[in-house]
Amino acid sequence: MGEVTAAGDGPAYRASDWTLEALLSAKGDQRISIVIPAKNEEATVGEVAARIIADLGGLVDEVVVIDSDSTDATAEVARSAGAKVFSAREIRADLGSVPGKGEALWKSQFVTTGDVLVFVDADLIDWGTHFVTGLLGPLLTRDEVRLVKAIYDRPMIDATGREEESGGRVTELVARPWLALHRPELAGLVQPLSGEWAIRRSTFASFEVPVGYGVEIAAVLDTADRFGVDAIAQVDLGLRTHRHHRHDTLGLMAVQVLAAAERRRAAAPGGGSQDASVTLRQYARGPEGFEPRVSEVGVGERPAGVTVGMPAHAERGTRAESR
Ligand SMILES: O=c1ccn([C@@H]2O[C@H](COP(=O)(O)OP(=O)(O)O[C@H]3O[C@H](CO)[C@@H](O)[C@H](O)[C@H]3O)[C@@H](O)[C@H]2O)c(=O)[nH]1
Ligand SMILES: O=C(O)[C@H](O)COP(=O)(O)O
Question: Does the UniProt entry include the keyword Disulfide bond (predicted)?
Fold first, then answer.
């Protein structure tokens, strides 16, 4: 097993570094929750949840799908697959609701029971349950590790099945350049935006959480700032394919990633209120020439979960933050 830090000055871990038996014994009495945020993922969420339940039922204590304002059969499909399903909007309704993936992850804190949270996207196509065991390995076996990021090859497959150039466009054009400019000690992160990551509940509950796609870059920066770069481990999981966005929706994602990163560079505008937004203008040629499309992109943040009250069943993991 290689020594690895986020700076990438050593080989990443590999999922095969741990057997299921080794993880079961390292787990002890800790509880493990898998959290799958899902917005209109009826085509894939059932398979993602069912495979984890079938392969890892002995290791994982619960598989929770957070339905993020889906208008399709995501919730029904996930429930039939055996997952516990919650609507993000209905969790802690006293705290209101805003759209976004980060919101779904933040809300998951109030309904999960795990000391360790493993986030897995719902739109995975090529993947395996070694994603989960790989992400758990460093967290269960090394006390200093707080956050584990998945790294993988991520080819971009077009509608005909042909492999385009590699994916991760926001990663390559936004996140990596920003890290190179402002946080070079984190430049060794192979996939700073990977949607599969594991974190101690106590750590996550102490973070402010961007409501949108800024949630990953924020967790990386906050972990490094609070606990040091060595608190982040990377695990090579091989190959991942997923559904791709068009360029215009990736532009919105890029705004959210940048807003979260900039907020952590300086007290920049944008964060703070859960409803904060930035106006993004994009252009497409129409009959009269280039026409603007204006989007209000949510870049607000939720406060640290511990400040708004954790449910009793989660208190053990949250108190452990002093670890
Ligand atoms: O409002 C939303 C939007 C998305 N999702 C879910 O979040 C996951 C990832 O969303 P997706 O739109 O597929 O993101 P990607 O294009 O895959 O973006 C990558 O980069 C993002 C920015 O870091 C990460 O949040 C993603 O997990 C990562 O896969 C999926 O399960 C979605 O269903 C929600 O739950 N609510
Ligand atoms: O992680 C990213 O950079 C975005 O999800 C975009 O990924 P894609 O270019 O593979 O669609």
Answer: no
